[in-house]
Design a protein that fits this description.
Blueprint (H helix, E strand, L loop, with lengths): L7 H13 L2 H8 L3 H15 L4 E4 L2 E4 L1 H30 L2 E6 H8 L3 H7 L5 E6 L12 E2 L11
Parallel strand pairs: 3-4, 3-5
Antiparallel strand pairs: 1-2
Helix pairs in contact: 1-2, 1-3, 1-4, 2-3
Length: 155
């Protein structure tokens, strides 16, 4: 039998319960009912074949297996959160790359660049001049600008 990951939503619910110490608070954080969290926890325990939580008064307590999984889940989800935040920062800081034939860039776009900078001061623009035919699908371009007459490309 091959060991695989249990459902990720169940792991996510478990990690929130283990971190917050409350099924109700985990539901609030994940924008679902505490009943949905409880079902996810049951699914996880069934998938692993082991109890992860025990009832303790009105709350829950982690079993030894639950502590072990909590530590692994905390590390994994923290790495995911950190990586996603880094990717979002990179995307937010990345320039908008506009491809344009050099002649159009020199004669039309650059004379209007000051106005564009005034109208969109937060735009991080990178211009990519091209001579000859400009392929709008070229890697690294967010958009292309060219002067042409119909027929327009189908894509």
């Amino acid at each position: 039998m091959t060991a695989g990951l249990p459902p990720l939503n169940a792991l996510r619910a478990f990690e929130a319960v283990a971190r917050l110490g409350s099924v109700k608070q985990a539901g609030v954080e994940l924008n679902v009912t505490h009943g949905a969290i409880s079902r996810q926890l049951k699914t996880l325990e069934e998938a692993l074949g082991i109890a992860l939580l025990e009832k303790e008064g009105r709350g829950v307590k982690l079993t030894d297996a639950g502590i072990h999984l909590r530590n692994a889940a905390r590390e994994a989800f923290e790495r995911l959160r950190s990586t996603c935040a880094e990717l979002q920062r990179q995307t937010a800081e990345a320039p908008f790359v506009l491809g344009c034939p050099g002649s159009l860039l020199a004669r039309w776009f650059i004379p209007r660049l000051d106005r564009l900078n005034r109208d969109l001061p937060d735009l991080r623009l990178q211009l990519s001049a091209s001579e000859g035919e400009l392929d709008p699908r070229r890697a690294g371009l967010d958009a292309t600008l060219w002067f042409a007459e119909p027929p327009w490309p189908a894509d």
